[in-house]
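Page 37, top half.
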Amino acid sequence: MQKCPGITLLALVIASGVATWIFTFIITKTIKIVIDEDGDASWILRFIFTILGYTTVFVPCYVLIYLSRRHNLHTLSGCQWMLLRLILTGHTYEIVPESENDNLPERASKHEAKSLYQKALSLFQCCVGLQVSYLVWGILQEKIMTSDYNDGETVEKFTDSQFLVFVNRILAFMFSGVYLLFTTQNVHRTPLYKYSFCSVSNTLSSWCQYEALKFVSFPTQVLAKSAKVIPVMLMGKLVSRAQYKNYEYATAVLISVGMTAFLLGSGETKKGNSVTTVSGAVLLCGYLLFDSFTANWQSALFKEHKPSSVQMMCGVNLMSCLFTSASLIQQGGFFYSISFAARHPVFIVDCLLTAISSALGQLCIFATISNFGPVVFTIIMTVRQGLSILLSCLLYHHELSYMGGLGVFIVFLAIFLRLYYAQQHKKRKIDLSENSTSKV
């Protein structure tokens, strides 16, 4: 790799990509022949096919990163190595400007110096943005996945949820990319390949969420989501070695208990829903695992490399586009979805509206995680589940039992206690810092 490092590297990456593609194609065809795709455990096959599709991107990227680091190719001069530097270092500069590095602590201190009013206003804006965008997204998503599309001759439903994920991600990538082009940002210093981990976990959590509805009822799935704050905190200890206070654990348990009581007391579930099965339980556990990893990995990237919310949004969605497109191409999802859109033009409008609301929701997600952390974000999203059902009770006159009312009280009591103890802990920390300074 000494004489022509660029050509040799490109040849090895292409060779590894082609070999991986052929291998996964053979494995996929073999599995389809041996195992029935319409069986009760067919979700396992779909999960394997999705992972195989992602592998066709992961393997050549691993070869690229490994060889580049081993031979220090990203440190070479020339425009041809700019993309490689972006992948491995997060920027295209051969030498990072010192002035930008010096500004980072100042910006961090300004961020910490925000008044309580500014933080409260920022948190309120994040809450409203998350509630509105995901309420609209949920309505449109349900319409696409459950409504019949009629072209005058045939009536059919759209079934490929991964294509919807791809459309959402590519539009969010375009929005964030355009925004970055026309605004001044910090020097981007997050290696692009690091976005791939939370990108994969994010797409897989969405996949598990959709698949779980085939085995469990919707209230059961919401019930599992309401307890998400606990696995997020546990994953935080594994990913970023986060330390939580006793009151944080206690209030997390209270929130989960309150949400459980509220959801159980919000009325009977609809008849005809699928009963809970082992497959459904496994998929719900997979959703909780992947989703909790996503929030904590993004939080770790914010702390280590300090990207802006829009930079994080752009990087994660870029990786998601690569992974989902590879899987869709391998499974024929593009051909099915494009032909469906050609038969039903209304479907195109629904997809675009869904993508816009998803992009706005993602921006609110990254802003919330960046400013307040993954646990606060999870609390907001957890409360959203209860508020949506409470709104349904008010609009459609569903009865709310005493247990449901008690659940609402417990949730908001837990949130109040969490904020109160957090403020008290911060106040004690400031007092100790001032006392130590005065002694010196």
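Page 37, bottom half:
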Amino acid sequence: MNNSNLLAIAKEFGSPIYVYDSEKITSQYQRLTSAFKKVKHVKLNYAVKALSNLAILKLMNSLGAGLDTVSIQEVQLGLLAGVSPSNIIFTPNGVSLEEIEEVSAMGVQINIDNLSILEQFGTKHPNVPVCIRINPHVMAGGNSNISVGHIDSKFGISIHQIPHILRIVENTGMNINGIHMHTGSDILDIDVFLYASEILFDTAKHFKNLDFIDFGSGFKVPYKEGDIETNIEEFGEKLTKRFNSFCKEYGKELILGFEPGKFLVSEAGYFLAQVNVVKQTTSTVFAGIDSGFNHLIRPMLYNSYHDIINISNPNGRERFYSIVGYICETDTFATNRRISEITEGDIVAFKNAGAYCYSMSSNYNSRYRPAEILWHNNEAHLIRKHETFDDLTKNQVDVDLFAPLEAATK
């Protein structure tokens, strides 16, 4: 989609607002499946936490993707979107046995990442197929907050605890049908991923009834022109060769699984905001927008980069701006960024706003969360309404406990 489309959406639906391009999501899905076209059985489970709007889940379902979920609520959203329980995998962390049992009763694939729950679940439900999440102790990812496969991570069962897993499986007689790992996000070094994959292959040899091996995801997408990204085609060629070889060794055609989230939706998303004020100080020119980290927290949380363009004046003379929000706390999206000249009232677009933007938004400062738009077949479709004041108060209980000060002192 182009700048005129985005400007028209901002004019029609207001700002701030999230916009997603279905064509880009589709092309990313096809790119990933194409990279592994020489594997007989490939299963892509879209990571719902990246962007959980029902319309997006329905789009993924129409493409043939399953869902990777981390909460019972994400499972319920998937089911509401029409996804079959058999196409959903549940990979929680630190949730109760009761939540896992409730999801299991829905017919969803369970993925367990700690010894305690594995033993409890296996003892009570030995016939339910279970996937095991392994921690390969491999450091990968673009930020410590999203690197989840290292030795100090809370995620997964350590590879050094394989004997404990085998003891639990033998004692309970439970059915292990999958092995899983996830090393982190923004992975660039293919060799590191392949090294972790070898650990997973070695682990898989201990289990004789596997249906699938799930390699997680974490592929890096470009955030600006000339940015580096995971070479999916090279990775696909190398892992395909190794996976097919392992299947022959294992004696069974296993399913090759991935859980892409950001890779599928990040580049499809735009976040549009209006410039409220241009403020010149002694050293900086600030462009203050009608949003803040309540709508896009990634730059503050992960120090992530989002390309920002002035779609109201895309060809104007470039100047240096610091883009800041309206939150009563420091919320700087970009510092001294070269952007086409900005005037008050202009609309700026943040790129790569499809993943972990709306899904991590909040009502901080009692601000409303924006609407969401799906750009599909060259038309804008409203897929979530802009919040109102009623949304802020609908779950609050107005308790009659306190009298006004003047009444209390009479």
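Margin note: The CA atoms of residues 7 and 311 lie 7 Å apart.
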